[in-house]
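Handout, section 4.2: multi-component inputs.
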Amino acid sequence: MTERFVVLKLLIVILRCSSLNMGATKTDLFTKEQNDMAAMAKALAHPARIAILEYLVAKNVCITSTFVEELGLAQATVSQHLKELKLAGIIQGSIEGTSVCYCINPKIWKQYKALFNSFFKDVAPNGQDCC
Amino acid sequence: MTERFVVLKLLIVILRCSSLNMGATKTDLFTKEQNDMAAMAKALAHPARIAILEYLVAKNVCITSTFVEELGLAQATVSQHLKELKLAGIIQGSIEGTSVCYCINPKIWKQYKALFNSFFKDVAPNGQDCC
DNA sequence: TTTAATTATCGCAATATTGCAATAATACAA
DNA sequence: TTGTATTATTGCAATATTGCGATAATTAAA
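Output:
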């Protein structure tokens, strides 16, 4: 009786989990705009990537080895963060000898700026309680 | 000879990993402002949380059960996302009977708006190559 | 062609996030 | 007090992210 119940529960768990993708974000529940907005935020969701972007905005260009010195992270780690930013489109790299020179992608940068700006619409400055 | 080498390598790995915090973000390498900016971005880095904020901006107030219907995620999952947004300070909840009524925290919302806006400084619209 | 310099990728371990069922906690009504 | 409705928390599994050593790939110089 109790045994049967346990077996049944186990089967349910197995069925549920074997239908896969457990633990991953359910992107299909949301609009493309919402998923894109979240993806943009994710690209900014690490202090190293914030630091990289701030540095590029201030200095215009920078090569990987300088980022490694500036950030204090291992070369492999920095390379990965740069890859993510490049994948998000917000920076671009051009090969310069044995180095790679990175800079902001101005077009995508402006898109980010515009989308974040329109996301943060003005809200009424109501009091402490909502309802 | 080879054996000694292997043992030494193992020891190095153990020492390195036992100094702990492996896999976690190295926040101490960055400024408070950079960590804060990344944390704000992280709060927005999920489509469900984007959807929640958009809904609140549009409708002003909303209770948990409505979010559950709107989002199509399980109640536990929605509750967790609301908790994260509350922890980030960007929303606030007030108990209304057996429900909890959520709304944007206008003060923090404006802070987010201002900080994202000042993060996306204007960049020169240079060409394809950086250097 | 060999060597040096620089960057990208692989493989692994640790931590973090996502999602949900089950259950606990809370507030109201009967 | 007991039951009902709603929300929060717990515990677990799956996936994602972070970090880095080792190594491969790429480019320029010798």
